[in-house]
């Protein structure tokens, strides 16, 4: 399992809170964040629950992860996802 520094996790969840492109999946909403040569997938579960990092990919490599955000980190992510998927 990957060890990701706390500062990187904070930056990833902050970037997800600013994301404007979200996809609907059967698991909920998801976005991709580019950081330090990796593409991280941040998942917002359908229904309720904390946002989490579901995995990261780089050239020739993919790691499945489950790193949950705190409630304080999840709330702005929910707001960003709802704003991005709102029908105008």
Give structural notes:
The chain has 88 residues and is an alpha+beta fold. It has one domain. Helices cover 30% and strands 39% of the residues. The protein is built from two helices and five strands; from the N terminus they run αβββββα. It has helices spanning 6-16, 71-85, and strands at 23-25, 28-35, 38-45, 52-58, 61-68. A five-stranded antiparallel sheet has the order 1-2-3-4-5. The chain is globular.
Topology:
Layout: H1 6-16, E1 23-25, E2 28-35, E3 38-45, E4 52-58, E5 61-68, H2 71-85
Antiparallel strand pairs: 1-2, 2-3, 3-4, 4-5
Q: What is shown here, in short?
A:
The chain is of the alpha+beta class and 88 residues long. It has helices at residues 6-16, 71-85; strands spanning 23-25, 28-35, 38-45, 52-58, 61-68.
Described by the principal axes of the CA atoms, the overall outline is globular
Low-confidence stretches: none
Biggest sheet features: 5 strands, antiparallel
Number of domains: 1
| Rg, nearest Å | 12 Å
DSSP summary, beta strand count: 5
Q: Which key features would you list for this structure?
A:
single chain; five-stranded antiparallel β-sheet; alpha+beta
